[in-house]
Amino acid sequence: MSRDETSLPALTDSLPTAGLGARAALPGDVGEITVRWQAREIIDVLLADSDPESEWTRAQLRELVALHPDSPESALLEHLTLTTAVANAEAEPVTDREPVLPATAPAPVPFTRRSRNRIEAVLGDKMLMTAFQPVRQLPDGQVIGVEALTRFVSDDGASADHWFTEAESVGLGADLEIAALLRALTAAQTVPGHLFVALNLTPTTCMDPRIQGLLEHSQLAMDRIIIELTGQVPLDQYASLTAALAPLRLRGLRVAVDGAGAGFTSMDQVLELHPDIIKLDRRFIEGIESSEGQQQRVAALAELARHIDAELVAEGVETKEEQSAVTALGMTAAQGYLLGRPSIHPLDWNAWIRSESESAATGPAS
């Protein structure tokens, strides 16, 4: 269970698709205005940078803004796609191909200084966005909630996990998590009110005294919030973590843990924290329909979930066969590319709900 298992190019998952043509019909949607404001804010920050080494990226962005004067979100998404492709090409083995970057491309800098500068830039300029991925109830497929996934405005194509790991390495891990949480809480205001919102936090950050205040003063009802713990809880921190979460859980907040950890450590985590939800990631789900061993492990975890009155949820469902298998094994909910890709656009979030309403109105397919 990661903060985001996809890299930055997945921002393009939110571009218009044939199945979401209703976007153009809702120009005044408050969610669209929110995303447009976020995109314009980020573009202003990028263009205000005076570093001569990044002038080539600013020039590209200016051209795209000129091409999309009324749609800053489209300009930003195209900019990210272009610069990520350049970064990926730069990382390929040297061949006889023509160089992609001009002579003025940024020169490498020492990792630690570069890392701290990158993280501080994100913290200072809030150069991150939130995508949501739907979580669907099994077996009927109704959307019951969303998971918040962080998207970083970067030209190197690094995954969100890489950013958080890099921040931790320079002592800014909790600060970056809290910045991402603030952005997610703001974006979540446009998520339909009957859906829960899952937010990823490390155990250490959950114990930060700022977290309780941020959640209590957000616009989300506490019973709509799920905290997904990313990573194992050190044995000596169970009591502290339980105490930190207790006041929020009394008010309706739910806790989810990763059930795919290593051996007894994961079992101890489940028994000690008594979570509301146990999630199984792609490592457990891939090819489960044809793996007796995986099915047996999931069956054992399903029994554990029943014992502590927790729900068992599948992540990374990508085929109908996997969906059928996890449903048969007793999982109550699932998410994955088969069930809905992450999107930063509120009109996509609303489209998930509209598609359900339309299905209900027309009845089941014959």
What does this structure look like?
Helices cover 48% and strands 13% of the residues. The protein is α/β, with parallel strands linked by helices. The chain has 2 domains: 23-107, no CATH class; 120-362, Alpha-Beta Barrel (TIM Barrel). Strands 1-2-3-4-5-6-7-8 form an 8-stranded mixed beta barrel, surrounded by 5 helices. Helix 5 runs antiparallel to helix 6 (173-187). The model is unreliable at 5-28, 84-110 and 359-366 (pLDDT under 50).
CATH superfamily of the largest domain: EAL domain
Instruction: Estimate nothing, just give the exact number of structural domains.
Output: 2
**Helical segment tally?**
14
Total E-strand runs: 8
At the first level of CATH, what is the class of the largest domain? Alpha Beta
Give the end-to-end Cα distance, rounded to a whole number of Å.
Answer: 37 Å
Find the structural class using helix and strand composition. Answer: alpha/beta
Give the helix level as a range of percent. 40-55%
Low-confidence stretches: 5-28, 84-110, 359-366
* CATH architectural designation of the largest domain: Alpha-Beta Barrel
Rg, nearest Å: 21 Å
The fraction of residues assigned to DSSP E strands is 5-15%
